[in-house]
TrEMBL record:
GO process terms (BP): mRNA catabolic process; nucleotide metabolic process; sno(s)RNA catabolic process
Protein name, as recorded: U8 snoRNA-decapping enzyme
Catalytic activity: IDP + H2O = IMP + phosphate + H(+); a 5'-end (N(7)-methyl 5'-triphosphoguanosine)-ribonucleoside in mRNA + H2O = N(7)-methyl-GDP + a 5'-end phospho-ribonucleoside in mRNA + 2 H(+); dIDP + H2O = dIMP + phosphate + H(+)
Start and end residues of each Nudix hydrolase domain: 1-127
Pfam family, one: Nudt16-like
């Protein structure tokens, strides 16, 4: 995931103008802005869409996408992210999600989930973990697989917000 400008954790993403671009075009543009040039090595497609929700009290619809990357792609994104256009502004840094629980029963994923998240990002994280990871036994040992998540966006007449995360096992 990423640390946002407001001190909350969330997914890479943002707003798009549907008059000028498709959801996926907007999403991939925002990925470049927030993650840097390494995001150009892959493209999030319509088939990667997982869920959509309205934001209460605001005229916003969020669309959640999940995209699997190779380890090489993820490593390139992590190295390049500090050079992205939005780094230090909207985005303060990428954060890996620990997919394990330490022996004290709290450290790892349980402690991570105690952070403050923007909107429904926490629920989206759990939704993604349930569908993609729990059946693979990935929520184990501290040396096990880790999840890294990204996001994107821009403003428009119709405020559509694109959220995405990428993972590797
Ligand atoms: O990662 C996310 N997961 C779920 N909802 C999100 C996420 N990021 C942003 N949102 C939703 O989109 C809204 C607008 O996002 P953001 O705070 O970046 O733009 P804003 O500065 O125009 O309010 C947030 O208030 C929140 O409800």
């Amino acid at each position: 995931m990423q640390m946002r400008f407001d001190g909350r954790l969330g997914f890479p993403g943002g707003f798009v103008t549907l008059q000028n671009e498709s959801l996926e075009d907007g999403l991939n543009r925002e990925l470049r802005e927030e993650l840097g040039d390494a995001a150009a090595a892959f493209r999030v497609e319509r088939a990667d869409h997982r869920s959509s929700r309205t934001v209460s009290g605001r005229r916003i619809v969020t669309h959640f996408y999940v995209r699997r990357l190779t380890l090489e792609q993820l490593a390139a994104v992590e190295i390049g992210a500090p050079h992205a256009k939005d780094h230090g502004l909207e985005v303060l840094g990428l954060v890996r999600v620990p997919l394990y629980t330490l022996q004290d029963g709290v450290g790892g994923l349980p402690a991570f989930l105690e952070n403050t998240f923007i909107g429904t990002a926490r629920e989206q994280l759990l939704e993604a973990l349930r569908s993609k990871l729990s059946t693979r036994g990935a929520l184990q040992g501290p040396m096990g697989p880790e999840l890294r998540i990204f996001v994107f966006g821009r403003e428009g007449e119709q405020r559509e917000c694109f959220l995405c995360w990428a993972w590797h096992l």
